[in-house]
Amino acid sequence: MQQDTFGHKADTWDEGSIRVDGAKKIANAILNTINLTKEMEIMDFGVGTGLLGFEIAQHTKKVYGIDTSKAMLEKLQEKNTSEISIESFCQDIIKEPLDKTFDGIISSMTLHHVEDLKAFFQTIYKNTNDNGFIAIADLEIEDGTFHSENHDVFHFGFDEMALCTIVREAGFKEVQFKNINTINKPQKDFGIFLLTAMK
């Protein structure tokens, strides 16, 4: 059983205004880029407490949340209602792939915690239906100061060209990368991108 590195953060996760506001901006960017419909089933990779997933669930048939943090998923389940809910899976889908495909895969600020990017994009390619999409938001290249401590951070943001190349090599097409938000922290400003692509 792997250690829950986010367990101690789960209780206060939704209290961070930067995090909550950031998830809304990512949701809006996805809604402005992808034509979501009530027929779609979506995977939210690194769903956490559902800050992005619940926004997207309002526009789709169903959102499935994937995370390796049991504590985060427990917080998410407390937020489920009869009107809007996310079905969650606690697993590492690279080591333990899901036997299910989705019309779209979304992710917010999780990619920098994924060590093997090639394996990740190859995995989610298999989990994406034909003509399905991915929409991944994360940090643009930074100097390692975004997080107060970098335990479990494998990438200090992402270079557009390098990341888009990995995504294309996994089989995705129509790859686009655009800045959608800037997070202002005392030490500096950090750019947030949304990468979208189609299968």
Written description of the protein model:
There is one protein chain. This protein has helices at about 15-35, 55, 70-80, 115-125, 160-170; strands at about 40-45, 60-65, 85-90, 100-110, 130-140, 175-185, 190-199. It is of the alpha/beta class and about 200 residues long. The chain has a single domain (about 5-25, about 40-199), classed as Vaccinia Virus protein VP39 (Rossmann fold). A 7-stranded mixed β-sheet has the order 3-2-1-4-5-7-6. A hairpin with a 4-residue loop joins strand 6 and strand 7 (about 190-199). The longest helix has 17 residues, at about 15-35.
Topology:
Layout: H1 17-33, E1 41-45, H2 53-57, E2 62-67, H3 70-79, E3 86-90, E4 102-108, H4 117-126, E5 128-139, H5 160-169, E6 173-184, E7 189-198
Parallel strand pairs: 1-2, 1-4, 2-3, 4-5
Antiparallel strand pairs: 5-7, 6-7
Keywords for this entry:
single chain; 7 strands; seven-stranded mixed sheet; 26% helix; Rossmann fold; 199 residues; 5 helices; alpha/beta
Instruction: Outline the low-pLDDT stretches.
Output: none
Strand content: 25-35%
Q: Name the helix and strand elements from N-terminus to C-terminus, one letter apiece.
A: HEHEHEEHEHEE
Q: Main sheet?
A: 7 strands, mixed
Into how many domains do the coordinates divide?
Answer: 1
Structural class: alpha/beta
Mean pLDDT, nearest integer? 91
Task: From the 3D structure, determine the CATH topology.
Answer: Rossmann fold
Assembly annotation: single chain
Using the coordinates above, name the CATH class.
Alpha Beta
Number of E strands: 7
Give the strand order of the largest sheet, numbering strands 1, 2, ... along the chain: 3-2-1-4-5-7-6
